[in-house]
Design brief:
Order of helices and strands: EEEEEEHEEHHHHHHHEEH
CATH architecture of the largest domain: Up-down Bundle
Strand order of the largest sheet: 1-5-7-8
Strand content: 15-25%
């Protein structure tokens, strides 16, 4: 069974025969490629040409993040692709009715995940929101309303102050955790999209834009409440993460030890 690998210190990823070898400041370690589904680098990591060759052969994507925990970019192994899938994806994007249908299903999935995430708590306002829009603009408004109510309910379930969602920079510890979790989920979703041979640039709910894989934004939405928010609640309420795991520098960010705590909780 393969699983994600998280690299948390500076170093170099090399190829040693038919496996990977990481050389860091305090560690040198062999990485069996057959056990790795994807690699997430939250510190500066250099890939040698040999490592890139092996990663391409094995189909292992590598995602890079800034020291603040924001998604930076990815190495995506070359895929043979699937022309029929790409054509169908483009056709569904260009057809307004089909695009709206897919986008609506994404928001419905998000709402269901929110309700499951808040099970046992009063979430009637979310439950009462009807997801029935005539266009994408209206649907995005419904999505925003769902998140607005969700964050209010979520704040009551965590034992750390959280008033409202703030991004770039996150203004408090809970926002820092949410932002970091969302970045990791974005990378994981991108890996799945590539393996499914979909085009990550062609999205349905979010508008495609240069410089981002917008389909990852689409498909991560239904999983944020169940994965990211559940992990945030767990690490806060069980005191796996405390004030000592953050640094304040123009915002509030997880430090290296805090990021390691998150990896072990995934």
């Amino acid at each position: 069974m393969t699983k994600p690998l998280y690299i948390t210190q500076y170093g170099e990823l090399r190829r040693e025969d038919n496996t990977l070898y990481f050389v860091g400041k305090t560690i040198e370690k062999t990485i069996p490629v057959k056990q790795v589904s994807e690699i997430h680098c939250t510190a500066r990591v250099t890939l040698t040409s040999g490592a890139i060759d092996l990663l391409s052969i094995e189909g292992i994507p590598v995602h890079f993040y800034t020291k603040e925990g924001f998604y930076k970019g990815s190495f995506l192994p070359k895929s043979s692709g699937n022309g029929r899938i790409k054509i169908a994806q483009v056709q569904h994007y260009l057809d307004k009715e089909k695009r709206l249908y897919i986008a609506t299903q994404i928001v419905k999935g998000m709402k269901n995940s929110m309700l499951k995430s808040l099970k046992g708590h009063d979430s009637r306002r979310i439950k009462d929101i009807e997801i029935n829009a005539d266009d994408l603009g209206e649907l995005l408004g419904i999505e925003a309303l769902l998140w607005e109510h969700y964050y209010k309910f979520f704040a009551k379930t965590v034992k750390m102050e959280f008033r409202r969602r703030t991004r770039r920079p996150p203004r408090d510890e809970v926002n820092s955790l949410i932002s970091f979790g969302n970045s990791l989920l974005y990378g994981i979703t991108l890996s799945s999209i590539v393996k499914a041979r979909l085009d990550p640039d062609i999205s349905f709910l979010h508008e495609p834009k240069e410089g981002r894989f917008s389909l990852s934004l689409d498909l991560s939405e239904p999983f944020k409440p169940l994965i990211v928010m559940s992990i945030v609640r767990k690490v806060v309420n069980k005191k796996i993460i405390t004030q000592q795991h953050f640094r304040k520098q123009g915002g509030v960010y997880l430090n290296a030890e805090g990021r390691k705590k998150i990896y072990s909780s995934i």
